[in-house]
Amino acid sequence: MVETEKKQEKETEQKTVLKITDMDPKFKYEISKIPGAEKIMLCFQCGTCTADCPIARFDDFYRPRKLIRMTQLGLKEKLLSNDVIWLCSTCFTCIDRCPQDVGIAGIVRALRNLSVKERDMPVVFKELASNIRKTGYAYIIPGMRLKKREEQGLPTLPKANLESVAKLFDITGFSKTLEKEAT
Ligand code: SF4
Ligand code: SF4
């Protein structure tokens, strides 16, 4: 299939008709109670966040402005079941730019947390979490790379306090979440 046809197909998919039954009017209130997402209703859809979002530059569907609007409209199921909420890199550019101080990254975090609670977490995030639990680092650094650092005279990486990491996982309930995800 040529590139233009693929693009048209994707655009048609995205133009799905919304039904009133898809909307949960209480969703915006549910989200606004979550710390970091309190200002959801202040968004007036100017689009400044999307214009500067580095992920929106590379993905045809990821638009922070759209995520906020979908949340305001109560499209809970469509949001929580969509992998797009996991694309945000938490760079906070949108937070710096938003004229309404909406705190988009906090809202995306709230959506992710709800998605984990009610559904699942992408495998890559489970792996990152499990790496942090085991080593204190999101990525397991290969021994070869550590040796190379040493050869180049770079300082040794600090050792993580794994006891504190485990405690944090337990206190926040994240250990249970990961156990649930593993079953
Ligand atoms: S910049 Fe702020 S007000 Fe404008 S669309 Fe984004 S979240 Fe809404
Ligand atoms: S924090 Fe997320 S939504 Fe905001 S600009 Fe960065 S990648 Fe985009």
Could you name the key traits of this structure?
globular, 2 domains, 183 residues, mainly alpha, binds iron/sulfur cluster, single chain, 12 helices, Fumarate Reductase Iron-sulfur Protein, Chain B, domain 2
How would you describe this protein?
The protein folds into 2 domains: 14-118, Fumarate Reductase Iron-sulfur Protein, Chain B, domain 2, CATH 1.10.1060.10; 123-182, no CATH class. Helix 9 packs across helix 11. The two termini are 39 Å apart. The chain has helices at residues 3-14, 27-32, 48-52, 54-58, 64-73, 76-80, 93-97, 104-118, 123-135, 143-151, 162-171, 174-182. The model has no long low-confidence stretch (mean pLDDT 89). The chain is built from 12 helices and no strands. The protein is mainly α. The site of one iron/sulfur cluster (SF4) has 16 residues, from helix 3 and helix 5.
What is the CATH top level name of the largest domain? Mainly Alpha
Mean pLDDT: 89
Estimated share of beta-strand residues = under 5%
Order of helices and strands: HHHHHHHHHHHH
Bound molecules: iron/sulfur cluster
CATH superfamily of the largest domain: Alpha-helical ferredoxin
The CATH topology of the largest domain comes to: Fumarate Reductase Iron-sulfur Protein, Chain B, domain 2
Structural Rg: 20 Å
Give the end-to-end Cα distance, rounded to a whole number of Å: 39 Å
Domain tally: 2
Give the overall shape: globular
- Low-confidence sequence ranges: none
Question: Care to count the β-strands?
Answer: 0
- What summary fits the major beta sheet? none
Which structural class do the helices and strands define? Answer: mainly alpha
Query: What would you say the CATH architecture of the largest domain is?
Result: Orthogonal Bundle
Helix content: 55-70%
Instruction: Compute the number of helices.
Output: 12
